[in-house]
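All the exercises in this workshop are built on plain-text protein records. Instead of coordinates, the fold is spelled out as a row of discrete tokens. Once this layout is familiar, the rest of the handout is easier to follow. The record below serves as our worked example for the rest of this section.
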Amino acid sequence: MSGIFASQGAAELTTAAVLVLSAGLSAAMSVRCLKRRNRPLLFWSAGLWLFTFGALLELMFAGNIYSSFAAKAYLLVAAVLVGTLALGSIQLSKSSRIRKGYYLFFILSSAFLVYSLLTTSVGNLLVDYVVAAPIPAQIILASSVITLPAAAVLVVFAYKSYKARRDPRFLSIIVGVIAVSAAGGLYIVQYPSFLYVAEVAGILLLWYGFL
């Protein structure tokens, strides 16, 4: 594969950087959550820990450590982490009906993805040590059912918070979420190199926005 990941070393370096940055942000968010006992922070920190786990799997793949189970775990985490972050944002809604409705939607859509992963064969997703091979259409569909509404929830509530407070950090969250969410989309449409670029850019923006 041509481009910025022409070697195993480049893939390992980039995935290691994403792992360190995401682990640091996840830890900082967890400490803040424990201090404030805040429900949005609980879900946001959980989502970031899922992002960190996904980055760990990417580092394993870059090191040529691969299995079908790890591939399916990666596809599951990549979608569920966006939904979990959205669970944090939906806590900002004043309507209990909206919150409960999103809880139910998230549970059902996640169950659909798990079912799709259990019943669909996933081959080797790696090309030159990075996630770049096509994935089955059913898994793309099931993942999109989770990630597209979740990304919309994240952007809408971050924008509302920005309008209320005029804090540029909320704009950083919006752009960071778009970058992280778009990473999977870029992979699906066969721009795998940008998957990792989007992750690095997204986690840096989230660092600024959340902290």
Summary: The first strand starts at residue 126 and ends at 127. The chain has one domain: 8-210. The radius of gyration is 17 Å.
